[in-house]
Amino acid sequence: MKKNILKWLDENVERYVCIALMSGMTVILFIQVVMRYFFSNSLTWSEELARYMFIYLVYFGISYGAKIRRHIKIEAFLGVFPKKLRPVVEILGDLLFLAFAGFIIYTAWQWVGRQIKLHQRSPALHIPMWVIYAAPFLGFILTAFRQVQTIIYRIKLLLNSEGDSL
Fold it and tell me: 127: helix, coil or strand?
């Protein structure tokens, strides 16, 4: 049972979080438009909440892109290398992206700590700002986890393809 839950989370967490955030943003902004144009009144908190949802959507989207291995790469650059060397170059690129994720995690953690000390709150919703600043931290923790999974996957593919050619 526990293994099934972990497997489901591994396969679906980013996708469903992104769907929920995008759907929530759409509903909130639609309600805001209706309030503004039909009732000549606007909600004070809707745009702020939509903005914060979008921030989280971006960082969970980065993780989802890493999970499905669909981040922007320079295919032409990869074509410069011989076919046998391309998997190694892809792994090196993944390692660089993992290092970048580590840098963002470290930097974002420092920002979250500063925001906790400042006790700053958002203007309309009065959400502690450290919650908003935690988006890159959480997103890149997941991204780093997905990059490790991708690197392991690519190494297994590389080792299996070398074993086939022997």
Answer: coil
- Residue 40 to residues 51, 114, 119, 125: CA-CA distances in angstroms? 22, 39, 34, 21
Spatial neighbors of 147 by CB under 8 A, at least 6 apart, are 66, 94, 97, 98, 101
What is the secondary structure of 60-120 as a DSSP string? HHHHHHHHTT-S---HHHHHTS-TTTHHHHHHHHHHHHHHHHHHHHHHHHHHHHHHHHHT-
Number of H helices, E strands in the chain: 5, 0
pTM: 0.89
Length of the chain: 166
Please return the burial class of 64, using the count of CB atoms within 10 Å of its CB with bins 0-12, 13-18 and 19+.
buried
39-98 confidence digits (pLDDT tens): 999 899 999 999 999 999 999 999 999 999 887 776 777 888 898 899 999 999 999 999
The 10 Å Cβ neighbour count of residue 76 is 7
DSSP three-state, residue 43: coil
Taking the C-alpha atoms of residue 165 and residue 49, their distance in angstroms, rounded to an integer, is 55
Strand partners, 128: 121
